[in-house]
Amino acid sequence: MEASALRPARRGRRRTRAAGSLLSRAAVLLFISAFLVRVPSSVGHLVQLPRGFRLTKDSVKIVGSTSFPVKVYVMLHQKSPHVLCVTQGLRNAELIDPSFQWHGPKGKIVSVENHTAQITSTGSLVFQNFEESMSGIYTCFLEYKPTVEEIVKRLQLKYAIYAYREPHYYYQFTARYHAAPCNSIYNISFEKKLIQILSKLLLDLSCEISLLKSECHHVKMQRAGLQNELFFTFSVSSLDTEKGPKPCTDHNCEPSKRLFKAKNLIERFFNQQVEILGRRAEQLPVIYYIEGTLQMVWINRCFPGYGMNVQKHPKCPECCVICSPGSYNPRDGIHCLQCNSSLVYGAKTCL
């Protein structure tokens, strides 16, 4: 998790006024700021492979080894690459009367039409819709003759096939506002209005604003005395492109691109509040953004049952790979934790 904060807070002048139209004035400033920020028309290109996956021309066809199990990574609910029942040396060789037989975690695999696991006529194993429960060790038994005259040769090739998911990454923001008295209903109304405006601002990006915490505190200032301040903490995460309020259906849907655009829009939104306040000839409203207090943190998390491990999965270092037996992830952490009693893939508890 890497954090990047904006410039240290520079507090502007604070002037109070009578409670009359506290919320309305503050809301007007927010609406003006939101109106001035335009959502860009393009937000990038969607790719299915994770950012850390090293793509090569052979990535969609994976060959085996007689020396060690070959690791294969399949995105959850997606089609797998072709897992070949040959070694690199035999890939382009002529095989006489080849025979292929696959065994998985649940026993012998028989290719059935429309089944999630299929075996092609050349012995390749392909998954159409990979599920967590399909993770495990797969073995192919190959029999063939190098030539018609030679005797039958037999090979046993093992593959460790893992489900993986993209990390659940999001931005977490904190910001402070000069506030009405902490027991005032205007603070509550303003909080709701702020979240509504931010949500509308990001609507076209299929991103979601979630208010994590809102607190009012008394802050003693060196010259201004005791002040009331609202401390907001909210997160910005990308929605599934097919489930958002305005579903993203074209190629401009990559979550990381949309989140980056959302971050820029939010920063501009708060900066414009400062600019608008600076041009005001009137007194400041009671509720207003305190310049320089917006801070942002980028957070990476894996879903329960998944974790990152660059030593174990060097070809997929930024993937959230399903936890192997002997490990588990009970919450939105980054790594799978050791658990000797765990006997399944994707464990979320250690019994």
TrEMBL record:
This is Ig-like domain-containing protein. Residues 50-156 form the Ig-like domain. Its main location: cytoplasm. Belongs to the zona pellucida-binding protein Sp38 family. It comes from Colobus angolensis palliatus (Peters' Angolan colobus). It is found in: Cytoplasmic vesicle, Secretory vesicle, Acrosome; Secreted. It comes from the Eukaryota. One of its GO terms (biological process) is acrosome assembly.
